[in-house]
TrEMBL record, chain A:
Record-linked SMART domains: AAA
One Gene Ontology biological process: peptide transport
Gene Ontology molecular function terms on file: ATP binding; ATP hydrolysis activity
Organism in which the protein naturally occurs: Micromonospora musae
Protein name: ABC transporter ATP-binding protein
From TrEMBL, chain B:
Protein name listed in UniProt: ABC transporter permease
SUPFAM superfamilies, per database record: MetI-like
Record-annotated ABC transmembrane type-1 domain positions: 102-292
Record's keyword terms, sorted: Cell membrane, Membrane, Transmembrane, Transmembrane helix, Transport
Membrane topology annotation: Multi-pass membrane protein
Family as reported in the entry's similarity comment: Belongs to the binding-protein-dependent transport system permease family.
TM regions (residue ranges): 40-62, 106-129, 234-252, 272-295
Subcellular compartments: Cell membrane
GO biological process: transmembrane transport
Length: 710, 306
């Protein structure tokens, strides 16, 4: 401890001066290779970065861009076969690559801290929290048992753990995800590091928890006067938190700039494309009917030699020069490696050289379908209840109660409509989806498909009804038999439902491939040969095989990168328009749901708390929970994040084993009063809310084009 | 939730051009390629072919009398009187005996291993698919049998019945199926809840189809891999039993029995009675283990190159 106080003082002064400060960490032309069974992947190629004391550097990129490899190279935690092969890692002016091993270990252990993505796997399940948090102290400072415990309690208090003196004796499994991430942060901070590297620290967390953790990291950075490297795939997370941003692509830094500058006027074409691919951008700038810009193709294979700009094959503005010339980062404050950068005018993405192709008047095309057929909704869910029996421990496994996964949920989906279902993990949204497609039987309530009650059907009839509604999975790889070829995978639904003969099935499969934009060559391949976006297309093709009227998408794009996500979302919309499909779009990502859905239902702990037209739910939320959810979503407009000071909810989701009586949100609601112990009904006409104190009255029926009265 | 774990699979996304150009190959073919890339697996396979060839084809070229004892030529050292590996205590040629014993060991090992795998697979699969009470009852039977030391039971059984080759196969098979049963049951349980099985049910598919098209093809790899380890184990069991004097009676031979006989001569310097069967047992067990490891890789779809 005494060792680290002296530099802290020095750096605080240095940060104040602002000029000619030595960077805390400087990467110079860092190369990292990873040797695999076949060939070598050049994960990093000439990465140069600087982190000033007390600064937050955001490193952003898609999967495979090398952002995590950069973090791991700094920490010396590269996976097996990984090695830094060139360049320098200067930490406080000393090159970690040339220092003696013992000193490097000490430097990394004491003066740097790292927080990983998954707080469950980064904690040892068999060690008590206190011991785990204090472990770095015992290793590096050799403190005694009693002192270690004291210090652990102290650091846990500083990361905002309730009752730290009791938590130290708990095991990781006894804490929730957010709490575990706090422990992981405490562990990283216990030696008072100068630099904290957070690798996707909130990716595995819900948005409301994500907000709490990001704020915590911000506060701690000021309190400890340390620098932070925030590695993430989420532009929104970076926008609100980082001082400077480095954008990575295919193992290189393609652009670095101050955060506000970068988001106001991105220069590199990749950065520009990435921002345009966000549903948030589309909704804000061109309205919901606009197509997203999707970057064609896939990132390059880093195990082969590459020449020229690595983004060239996917770039709209590519010239021959781009393919042959290696572009270095430009000088100055705003650096970028692009031959044809976006012009420096601060208007940025508004003046697009190649405007997004828009389908002619999609609103008109889609709307009539909706209106004329509102008579029989394609899916009608009435008072749906699903309880799971919770088993106690021991031999006899007595029922220890019921987990209330879905409690009294009712909604309707009109033909051709997209119904978005949002909520945090554990709110029951996936269970609703599984119930709707018949994978689970409801405990009570009705599910009507096209006016027919599913529960009343059995055997053959029931299977026939499955044609009407199909499920689209989050992880299409897991949802496909790895030992079946794509043609067999696509033929399976047709075989099960005994549709047509062999030739007819083959014809149907070919037309399906055309619909989702895949070449016929994929038919002879196996699922493991495809990338995530391609798999999602195949999954969608399989869902479409039986010509269903409704597709239930359970987080269909959550595992995809932004650019690939845009491809899939566009495809889903195109198909909806062509085929008149209805979607139930389940997601935790409000900005995606906002873009996709006509109407949105918000779920909290098994209950639907708000249902209404998407626009109104997102922009004029009536339920405090919805508002909190909206406020927690990180946005790429930095000012938006700062300005929103609406409802912040604290604490954790209560257990569904014994949900709170009355309004289930009341335990975390800032507006809760006594009356909330009685259950509020889902009230309202078009924009319904289940709250005793709705934030605002129902907006007057504005040009009621979607007359989906309940 | 979003899981963008790059660390595990750098550069995993294939070049689209690459995917289009690569030749299309079937899963078995791809598996064969992976198997061949595993050097140890190839060594194992070569070793097995070598040993099996020696034992089964060797006697065609190298004729010895393994029925009548020759008390005039006992304990001859290797090389003496035209016996390359010498002779044992009753005058049998050691090399010829090694071949004969190898036949028994390999036949019993293969047959018992396959028998155990077949019984265990069916038992475990039924328990896993049916679930509920049937599962509980069937698996408790397995637990109960596992709690009895197998060696003790082998000795008891071998003392009751006269050991012969078929009897050895049945005895060993009767106890070795417990492992595969547990393994396959676990596999069936996980496969049953896989998302692709759910996806199929979502299309309106039946349980039978799930078993036929999804569960069996995906479990078969595990079963085959396990079978090779079962064979290795069975060969060792034969050796144990024979070593304890419960093997096939003379003049039939097997490697374990030869080892047992040779042990009596440890201090008389007759090393050629001890080392050849011992080394042969080690080699064949190693061979099957290497083959099993190679097959494990070959059946792991994810290890394949796109």
């Amino acid at each position: 401890m005494s060792e680290s106080t002296e530099p802290k003082v020095r750096q605080h002064q240095a940060a104040g001066d602002g000029t000619a400060v030595q960077p805390l960490l400087e990467l110079r032309d860092l190369d990292t290779d990873i040797a695999l069974r076949r060939g070598t992947v050049h994960a990093l190629d000439g990465v140069s970065l600087e982190v000033m004391p007390g600064e937050t550097l955001g490193v952003v990129g898609e999967s495979g861009s090398g952002k995590t490899m950069t973090a791991l190279s700094i920490m010396g935690l590269l996976p097996q076969g990984g090695q830094v092969t060139g360049g320098q890692i200067l930490f406080e002016g000393r090159d970690l690559r040339s220092l003696p091993a013992d000193e490097v270990r000490r430097t990394r252990g004491v003066r740097m801290g790292m927080v990983f993505q998954d707080p469950l796997t980064s904690l040892n399940p068999t060690m008590r929290i206190g011991y785990q948090v204090a472990e770095p102290l015992r290793v590096h400072e050799g403190v005694g048992k009693a002192e270690a415990r004291e210090r652990a309690v102290e650091i846990l208090r500083r990361v905002g753990m309730p009752r730290p003196d009791r938590i130290v004796d708990n095991y990781p499994h006894e804490l929730s995800g957010g709490m575990r991430q706090r422990v992981a942060i405490a562990m990283a901070l216990v030696c008072s590091p100068r630099l904290l590297i957070a690798d996707e620290p909130t990716t595995a967390l819900d948005v409301t928890t994500q907000r709490q953790i990001l704020e915590l990291i911000d506060d701690l950075r000021e309190e400890f006067g340390m620098a932070v490297i925030l590695v993430t795939h989420d532009l929104g997370v970076i926008a609100g938190r980082a001082d400077r941003v480095a954008v990575m692509y295919a193992g290189r830094v393609v652009e670095t700039a101050a955060t506000a500058e970068l988001f106001r006027s991105p220069r590199h074409r990749y950065t520009e494309a990435l921002m345009e691919a966000l549903p948030e951008t589309a909704v804000r700038e061109a309205g919901k009917e606009a197509r997203l810009y999707s970057i064609p193709g896939l990132p390059p294979d880093l195990s082969r030699p590459l020449t020229g700009c690595r983004f060239a094959p996917r770039c709209r503005h590519v010239t021959d020069e781009c393919r042959s010339t290696d572009v270095a980062l430009s000088g100055g404050e705003h650096q970028f490696a692009c031959l044809h950068p976006v012009s420096g005018t601060p208007t940025g993405p508004v003046t697009l050289p190649a405007p997004v192709v828009r389908e002619p008047a999609p609103v008109e095309a889609a709307a009539p379908v909706r209106v004329e057929s509102t008579a029989t909704p394609v899916l009608s869910v009435q008072n749906l209840v699903k309880n799971y029996a919770a088993h106690g421990r021991g031999l006899l496994r007595r029922n220890a109660g019921q987990v209330s996964a879905v409690a009294d949920v009712s909604f309707e989906v009109a033909p051709g409509e997209t119904f978005g279902l949002v909520g945090e993990s554990g709110c029951g949204k996936s269970t609703v989806g599984r119930l709707a497609v018949g994978l689970e039987r409801p405990s009570a309530g009705q599910i009507l498909l096209d006016g027919t009650d599913l529960a009343g059907l059995a055997g053959r009839e029931r299977r026939r009804m499955h044609r009407q509604v199909q499920l689209m999975f989050q992880d299409s790889y897991a949802a496909m038999n790895p030992r079946m070829r794509v043609d067999a995978i696509l033929a399976e639904p047709l075989e099960i439902q005994k549709v047509g003969d062999g030739a007819a099935r083959r014809a149907r499969i070919t037309s399906l491939l055309d619909q989702v934009g895949l070449s016929r060559r994929v038919l002879e391949r196996y699922p493991h040969e495809f990338s995530g976006g391609q798999l999602q297309r195949i999954g969608l093709a399989r869902s479409l095989a039986l010509q269903p009227r409704l597709i239930v998408g359970d987080e269909p794009v959550s595992a995809l990168d932004v650019s690939i996500q845009a491809q899939v979302l566009n495809l889903m919309r195109d198909l909806q328009r062509e085929l008149g499909l209805a979607y139930v779009f389940i997601s935790h990502d409000l900005s995606v749901v906002d873009y996709m859905a006509d109407r949105i239902g918000v779920m909290y702990l098994g209950k639907l708390v708000e249902v209404g037209p998407a626009r109104e739910v997102v922009r004029a939320a009536r339920h405090p929970y919805t508002q909190a959810l909206i406020d927690a979503v990180p946005s790429i407009t930095p000012s938006a994040t700062a300005a929103r000071d609406g409802v912040t909810i604290q604490g954790e989701l209560p257990s569904a084993l014994n949900p709170p009586t009355g309004c289930r949100f009341r335990t975390r609601c800032p507006l809760a009063q006594e009356i909330c112990e009685t259950e509020p009904p889902l009230a309202g006409d078009r924009h319904q809310v289940a709250c005793h104190f709705p934030l605002r009255p129902e907006a007057d029926a504005v040009s009621a084009q979607t007359g989906t009265a309940a | 939730m979003t899981t963008l774990s790059e660390a595990g699979r750098p550069g995993a996304a294939p070049d689209p051009a690459d995917a289009a150009e690569a030749p299309v190959r079937g899963l078995w073919r791809q598996g064969f390629v992976v198997f061949c890339e595993n050097r140890l697996a190839l060594v194992g396979l070569g070793l097995f072919i070598l040993l099996a060839g020696l034992c089964f084809l060797g006697p065609l070229f190298y004729h010895t009398d393994q029925v009548h004892t020759d008390l005039a030529a006992v304990h001859l050292a290797p090389g003496e009187q035209g016996h390359p590996l010498g002779t044992d205590g009753v005058g049998y040629d050691q090399l010829g005996r090694l071949m004969l014993g190898g036949q028994t060991s390999i036949i019993v090992g293969l047959a018992a291993g396959i028998l155990a795998t077949a019984v265990g697979t069916i038992w475990g699969a039924v328990a896993g698919f049916v679930g509920g009470w049937a599962d509980t009852a069937m698996m408790r039977v397995v637990d109960a049998m596992m709690s009895i030391p197998s060696l003790f039971l082998f000795m008891l059984l071998a003392a009751i019945v006269t050991p012969s080759v078929p009897m050895l196969i049945v005895i060993i098979g009767a106890f070795a199926w417990l492992g595969p049963a547990r393994l396959v049951r676990g596999e069936a349980l996980t496969l049953r809840s896989r998302e692709y099985v759910q996806a199929m049910r979502g299309m309106g598919g039946t349980g039978g189809r799930a078993v036929r098209r999804h569960i069996v093809p995906n479990a078969i790899g595990t079963v085959i891999v396990n079978a090779t380890f079962q064979v290795a184990d069975a060969i060792l069991y034969v050796a144990y039993l024979s070593f304890l004097g419960l093997g096939v009676p003379p003049p039939a031979a097997n490697w374990g029995g030869m080892l047992s006989d040779g042990l009596a001569d440890t201090y008389s310097g007759h090393w050629w009675l001890l080392y050849p069967p011992g080394i042969a047992i080690i080699l064949i067990v190693l061979a099957f283990n290497f083959i099993g490891d190679g097959l494990r890789d070959a059946f792991e779809v994810r290890l394949r190159r796109r």
